[in-house]
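> example.struct
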């Protein structure tokens, strides 16, 4: 579901429209659309993972 949301956002689809196109597949809310806040949160977390630089060795003690 997140991959589909990211692809839609990359195409320029507004987040409210993305939320309407997504469907929850499991759990109590099966078949319902996720909340707008949940979609914003998921997209923000995905951005944080994608844009966060990997740790680089600093050459500290013992190097």
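> example.seq
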């Amino acid at each position: 579901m997140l991959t589909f949301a990211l692809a839609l956002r990359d195409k320029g689809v507004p987040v409210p429209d993305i939320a309407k196109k997504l469907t929850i597949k499991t759990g109590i809310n099966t078949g319902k659309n996720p909340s707008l806040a949940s979609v914003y949160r998921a997209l923000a977390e995905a951005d944080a993972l994608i844009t966060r630089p990997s740790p680089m060795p600093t050459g500290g003690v013992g190097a």
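> remarks
Residues 2-51 form one domain.
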